[in-house]
Amino acid sequence: MKRRLAREKAFQALFQMDSNDINMEEAIQHVVEESGNDVFLNQLVEGVVEYKSEIDHWIEENLEHWTFARLARVEKTLLRMAAYEIKFNEEVPSQVAINEAVELAKIFGEDQSGKFINGVLSKMV
């Protein structure tokens, strides 16, 4: 599975976990039924789950005129994924993590989601 697709599936799994209070294994199974299992997808989901409180705190520190509690689930999930990649995954250049999050925001978010995601993540690097 290509990394862009793995990120999309990881987003879907993390979003389901946040929305429906299901466990990680079940969420991943829901999104990879046809695609098979992927190491990068698992690493991304597991990493976000493991470092969630640290990631959330880091995001909140970088929000301007906004609170973490006010973030929509789409933006919150995408920021968590990209923040994990920036801070904990040395294989992925920060700019790649930002660009991928912006692209996913254009697909799953509102009209201004991509700009918002880009602004917050750019401040974080």
UniProtKB/TrEMBL annotation:
Is Transcription regulation among this UniProt entry's keywords? yes
Domain of life from the UniProt record: Bacteria
What PANTHER family does this protein's entry cite?
Answer: ANTITERMINATION NUSB DOMAIN-CONTAINING PROTEIN, N UTILIZATION SUBSTANCE PROTEIN B-RELATED
List the protein's name: Transcription antitermination protein NusB
Q: What does this protein do?
A: Involved in transcription antitermination. Required for transcription of ribosomal RNA (rRNA) genes. Binds specifically to the boxA antiterminator sequence of the ribosomal RNA (rrn) operons.
Q: Which InterPro entries match?
A: NusB-like_sf, NusB_fam, NusB_RsmB_TIM44
Q: Which UniProt keywords apply?
A: RNA-binding, Transcription, Transcription antitermination, Transcription regulation
Assigned protein family: Belongs to the NusB family.
